[in-house]
Amino acid sequence: MPTARTFPFRFVRSFIVFFLLCFTVAFLIMSKREFDEVTINQVLFHMQLMRDNIVTMPGDFIHVFFWHVKNAVLCAVTFAFLRESAPKRQGRAGVPFAVGCLGLAALWYIVPGTFIDDLFVVVRYAVVAALFVAAAGAAGLPYRVYTLVPRALHWLSGGWRLAVLWLGILAYGMYYVNFLTFFQEQAVIGDFYTEGAYVDPRKVTVSGTGTKNLIIIYCESIEETFGRSDVMGEDLLAPLRPSIEEPDLRIEQMPGADFTIGGIVASQCGIPLKSISILSGNLTGWALERYLPGAVCLGDYLKADGYHNVYYNGSSGVFSGLNKFFLSHGYQEFMGKEDWIEKKHVDPATMNTWAMYDSDMVERSIARIDELMAEGRKFSFVLSTMDTHEPGFLSPPCVDEGYSENWAGYVKCSMSQVERLLRHIRDKGWENQFVILVMGDHQARMAKMDDVDLKQVKNRYVLCSLQRDATLKPVRSVISHFDLFPSLLAALGFSVEGERLGFGYNVFSTEVTPEENYLARLKKRVLSHSKVYESLWLPEYAGREMQ
């Protein structure tokens, strides 16, 4: 055994080495599982956001982080003990060491608590097995077995092997955070936002005034594919056909617009929603105090023109920061699941596990639209359907009408409720007073829809029907979410200088059109690192007025 004088120093030294190794590996595993794809620019910018008190880590992630710290300490103590405390002789001299091994083995079941990571279970089995081998050896097994674990730890943590291990972890860490891609973008490719693809709305003059009211219906996971009988076996969009025969627009989905809040931000602000922090697009919204304070979006223009802007949502308004986004960008009314329950407008017992049923959402939307029309002021009304969110739900009226309990039934039922709202507008004779956008928020995210493997389907487009003045003819049929930002303003009667906002082009303009490969370029580079994009989140832009 080491002398009493050198043992504490050697143990502490081994503990520090093993802790750094264990925690580095644990942190990489944690970030891989808990966060979105992490890049070095996300880490750097996340530090900036935390410094300026714009983003804080959610409590769940703090809990997971300290769980990994705690277990890295346990791992380091175990390895340091095995490496430095093994006695030179077996028998009675090895009894304290054997007792120590068994005590550490017990701690591996006590310290982690009730939360267990799958990989940790495998690691625990391996470490506890090593502790039992060492304990059994100290109690009298052959010397080579007895010293197997300490010798292995000495070999691993000594000299050049330790350096190679650290270099391996460092190389993987650089690969994991896409360091080479970051360097290439910074030093070679440049900032995509400054190459003419992006037009900053803060520097664009939007003139004129809105002459119509606006309704936007974001249909959860609804794509044009659902109307293809050759793919789905039937036209699942049939309930919508009285209002939407064959839309003359279709949306090609872009990166950063492939989830609900991303599709909403892309269509209203002309930009993707990407992970500027180490949190994913949805989780970022939970942690932020302000949502895109430097961006100018559709609601900002409408509010400045005297519109009263309303957003109705049947699911959580806190999830993904939906409430922060809308209330930060010109919307005076926001209703999410929490608001419906708090104001006692909806009995939670009448909701499904995810949200309010679409039938109830449409009922309340019709009532609020009627009130706004009676008030006689300009307004925009936005709502999101939810029955087609995984795992799929069937509104009670559809159950009574015999709709099937599968994806075909969920889609047809949800579309029948959307059609009920559109039919109400027609029955009231209000069609000419509205611009109405019915669109999917993004493509369906489920791998299979009943018996159809959606991943094998080619030419998938997000549903897009824009009802507007018949004189407005689109110059192209395939657009992106981004194009809806300037196109909606044009449909309402505004004039957009240069016909562009963000990454979007006014689809009704014959004067300014994107180059032929524009959508392909967007797909490839729209999520690239950009200082311009980062500036949209920085606090110095929070109070900037629209130009």
Produce the secondary structure layout.
Elements (H helix, E strand, L loop, with lengths): L6 H28 L5 H12 L7 H26 L10 H16 L7 H21 L4 H4 L1 H9 L2 H18 L2 H11 L16 E3 L4 E7 L9 H4 L17 E2 L8 H10 L11 H7 L10 H7 L3 E6 L8 H7 L4 E3 L1 H6 L15 H18 L3 E6 L11 H5 L6 H21 L6 E7 L7 E2 L2 E2 L10 E4 L10 E2 L4 H9 L1 E3 L3 E2 L2 E2 L12 H8 L5 H5 L12
Parallel strand pairs: 2-6, 2-7, 3-11, 4-5, 4-6
Antiparallel strand pairs: 1-12, 7-10, 8-9, 13-14
Helix pairs in contact: 1-3, 1-8, 3-4, 3-7, 4-5, 16-18
Task: Describe the overall structure.
The chain is an alpha/beta fold. It has 2 domains: 7-185, no CATH class; 192-541, Alkaline Phosphatase, subunit A (3-Layer(aba) Sandwich). It is 46% helix and 9% strand. The strands form 5 sheets. Strands 5-4-6-2-7-10 form a 6-stranded mixed β-sheet, sandwiched between helices. A two-stranded antiparallel ribbon has the order 1-12. The chain has a two-stranded parallel ribbon with strand order 3-11. A hairpin with a 2-residue loop joins β13 and β14. The longest helix has 28 residues, at 7-34. The chain is elongated and about 95 Å long. It starts with 6 loop residues before the first helix and ends in a 12-residue tail after the last helix.
